[in-house]
C-alpha cells in the first residue's frame, strides 16, 4: 500500500509545525542560533559560522 502525506489543509499536517517546517526545508533562525546568536556548521570538512549581526541580519563566513 502506498503511503502519502496528508494534504496541506489537513488538521493532522499542522499538528507539529516544526516537523512540518523541516519537511519543507525550513527552520526558524531562532532555533538554529538559540540565545548564542551563532552557529558553527561543518560542511564537507570545513567549518562555517552563521551569526546574527547587530542589525538583525544573518551572515555566513568560513
Notes on the protein architecture:
The protein is α+β, with helices and mostly antiparallel strands and 62 residues long. Helix content is 19%, strand content 27%. The protein has two helices and three strands; from the N terminus they run ααβββ. The protein has helices at 17-23, 29-33; strands at 38-43, 46-52, 58-61. A hairpin with a 5-residue loop joins strand 2 (46-52) and strand 3 (58-61). The longest helix is centred in the N-terminal third of the chain and has 7 residues, at 17-23. 0% of the residues are buried. The mean pLDDT is 80. This is Hemin uptake protein HemP. Residues 1-10 have a biased composition (Pro residues). Residues 1-29 are annotated as: Disordered. It comes from Halomonas salipaludis.
Which key terms come to mind for this protein?
alpha+beta; Complement Module, domain 1; 62 residues; 3 strands; three-stranded antiparallel sheet; 19% helix; Hemin_uptake_protein_HemP; Hemin uptake protein HemP
Could you estimate the helical fraction of the residues in percent?
10-25%
CATH topology of the domain at 29-62: Complement Module, domain 1
Strand order of the largest sheet: 1-2-3
Arithmetic mean of pLDDT? 80
> Low-confidence runs (pLDDT<50, min 5 residues)?
none
Tell me the series of helices and strands, N- to C-terminal. Answer: HHEEE
Tertiary shape = globular
Assign the CATH superfamily of the domain at 29-62: Complement Module, domain 1
CATH classification, class level of the domain at 29-62 = Mainly Beta
Oligomer: single chain
- Cα end-to-end separation: 46 Å
Pfam families: hemP
Protein name: Hemin uptake protein HemP
Organism: Halomonas salipaludis
InterPro entries: Hemin_uptake_protein_HemP
Amino acid at each position: 500500500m502506498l503511503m502519502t502525506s496528508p494534504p496541506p489543509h489537513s488538521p493532522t499536517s499542522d499538528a507539529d509545525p516544526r516537523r512540518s517546517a523541516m519537511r519543507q526545508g525550513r527552520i526558524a533562525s531562532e532555533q538554529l542560533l538559540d540565545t548564542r546568536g551563532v552557529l558553527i556548521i561543518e560542511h564537507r570538512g570545513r567549518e562555517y559560522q552563521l551569526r546574527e549581526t547587530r542589525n538583525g541580519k544573518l551572515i555566513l563566513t568560513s
